[in-house]
Design the sequence.
């Protein structure tokens, strides 16, 4: 989906100081970062500011960056940290923050009806329903599902990004799946009763 | 027990192994859902604007790494001396008086406009208008076809302002014989008559000056960020508000540049010799000079532009001002393209853009007054 991987060639050229590689890096990852950022914050200016800061940091420290990295993961991780910090700062400035949810977290999921891969109307309904279910899961479980299945990160990467252990990460996903099942069963019964 | 075991093994490789049929279905659907989320895309124009912002920040940073420590030192000293600085700032000079006049005049105008000291506004309809001051500045010859008269007060604090919008140009001959070519999107504030020890004008945008020699009465060009002191000479000043830098190019004679930024210890200034360009960056308070071929910087006043390996972005910015059109770069590759050659500004815009298109092999699209190169 969001898998554009120009490989580590580009990354290495960037580290060795090529300005065209810097520009290509911007081209390749800005859209991914923006979508990712908008998942965490509804403030598009804040997300753009963080993208700006991320690329400025990359440019400033390019001499000391590691060559052997998963570029996308590295960028997402740094970016998430920036978003987190920016979010904290902006909620400090906001007087109503004590009322609002103070935790930094992921926004609700909605299924995109325009998506080509879904043809079946029944499947559409089911996915809409699943999205509702997932949105009711605890924050961190939702985030893990997103990182695992939308961003296609592996457990080690998710664990490192969210600062939890790998087993905890596994448990979260497992629990999320169990919980979804329970809820789906419940609501299909409810649906059944409705039809009777 | 069984469950514990499964938890450890199953999720080792992938999630699906060992799940019940129902659980696998949920998993599959979750994957599909996660791959078809409604997501906010970044509009292309915003992506490009953000790229520019990144590049500008980098450009600014790269110009001052060594000085940052000194900046920190200077900043803490400045903090101690805030009172002194306040005193410095309170001293008002003629440049800031004229800057104030300029700021009060309405900016968005379709026509070239001359505002007199008595607040009358004269509209000049020509594409390239020409003004000549005569008789102590009380009489102004416009486009050698009409004449405007004004009262000239004894005090020099009354100014005339010439505003040239994008798409227009103007020349003006002041009462001392100094001739000034004003480029598109520029504004000049000046007294109708020069008396006293100095001749001072204020410029926003770009102008070429041919200053008549009068050693006893130096000529000053004030801009927002620098001041140019002149004895008698020919030079170009470019001080557009939307440019990062203010630049002066000296053709002949001698000029001296002073940064307006008040520094308590050293005010930046530089003397220029002919064939030199000075560039001042207000954000970093950095004044640099370099020897240049002056022709590309001043050719606009003759109605053409010369470029030597100039980035397309800079060229399009100039053309946007000159023709009052919105011309931009739509693709990343186009950003690295440079152009060398001469563009004749007598031609209409489409023709000029065709020349660029042919020699860079980039295509452009037009929608009304908007042009995008890809």
Sequence:
């Amino acid at each position: 989906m969001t898998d554009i991987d120009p490989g580590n060639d580009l990354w290495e050229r960037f580290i060795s100081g090529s300005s065209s590689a810097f520009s290509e890096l911007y081209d390749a990852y800005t859209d991914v970062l923006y979508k990712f950022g908008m998942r965490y914050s509804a403030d598009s200016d804040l997300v753009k500011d963080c993208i700006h800061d991320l690329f400025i940091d990359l440019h400033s420290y390019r001499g000391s960056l590691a060559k052997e990295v998963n570029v996308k993961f590295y960028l997402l991780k740094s970016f998430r940290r920036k978003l987190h910090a920016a979010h904290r700062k902006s909620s400090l400035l906001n007087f109503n923050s004590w009322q609002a949810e103070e935790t930094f977290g992921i926004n609700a999921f909605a299924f995109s009806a325009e998506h080509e891969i879904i043809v079946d109307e029944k499947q559409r309904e089911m996915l809409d329903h699943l999205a509702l279910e997932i949105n009711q899961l605890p924050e961190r479980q939702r985030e893990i599902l997103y990182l695992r299945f939308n961003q296609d990160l592996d457990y080690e990467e998710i664990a490192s990004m969210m600062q939890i252990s790998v087993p905890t990460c596994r448990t979260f996903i497992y629990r999320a799946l169990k919980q979804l099942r329970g809820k789906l069963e419940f609501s299909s019964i409810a649906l059944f009763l409705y039809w009777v | 027990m069984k469950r514990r075991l499964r938890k450890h093994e199953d999720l080792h490789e992938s999630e699906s192994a060992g799940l019940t049929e129902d659980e696998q279905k949920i998993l599959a659907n979750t994957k599909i859902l996660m791959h078809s989320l409604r997501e906010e895309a970044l509009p292309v124009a915003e992506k490009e604007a953000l790229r520019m912002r990144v590049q500008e920040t980098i450009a600014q940073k790269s110009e001052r790494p060594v000085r940052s420590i000194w900046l920190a030192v200077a900043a803490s000293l400045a903090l101690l001396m805030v009172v002194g600085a306040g005193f410095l700032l309170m001293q008002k000079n003629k440049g800031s008086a004229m800057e104030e006049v300029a700021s009060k005049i309405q900016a968005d105008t379709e026509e070239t406009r001359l505002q007199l000291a008595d607040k009358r506004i004269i509209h000049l309809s020509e594409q390239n208008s020409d003004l000549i001051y005569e008789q102590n500045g009380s009489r102004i010859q416009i486009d050698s076809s009409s004449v405007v008269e004004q009262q000239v007060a004894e005090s020099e604090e009354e100014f005339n302002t010439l505003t040239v919008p994008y798409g227009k140009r103007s020349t003006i001959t002041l009462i001392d014989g100094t001739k000034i070519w004003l480029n598109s999107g520029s504004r000049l504030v000046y007294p109708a008559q020069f008396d006293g020890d100095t001749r001072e004008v204020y410029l926003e945008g770009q102008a070429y000056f041919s200053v008549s020699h009068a050693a006893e009465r130096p000529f000053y060009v004030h801009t927002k960020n620098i001041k140019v002191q002149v004895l008698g000479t020919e030079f170009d000043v470019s001080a557009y508000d939307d440019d990062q830098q203010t630049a002066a190019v000296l053709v002949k004679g001698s000029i001296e540049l002073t940064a307006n930024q008040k520094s308590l210890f050293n005010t930046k200034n530089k003397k220029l010799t002919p064939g030199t360009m000075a560039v001042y960056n207000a954000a970093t308070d950095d004044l640099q000079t370099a020897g240049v071929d002056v022709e590309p910087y001043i050719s606009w006043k003759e109605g053409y532009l010369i470029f030597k390996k100039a980035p397309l972005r800079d060229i399009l910015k100039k053309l946007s001002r000159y023709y009052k059109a919105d011309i931009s770069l739509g693709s990343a590759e186009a950003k690295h393209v440079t152009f060398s050659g001469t563009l004749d500004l007598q031609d209409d815009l489409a023709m000029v853009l065709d020349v660029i298109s042919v020699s860079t092999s980039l295509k452009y699209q037009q929608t009304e007054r908007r042009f995008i190169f890809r």
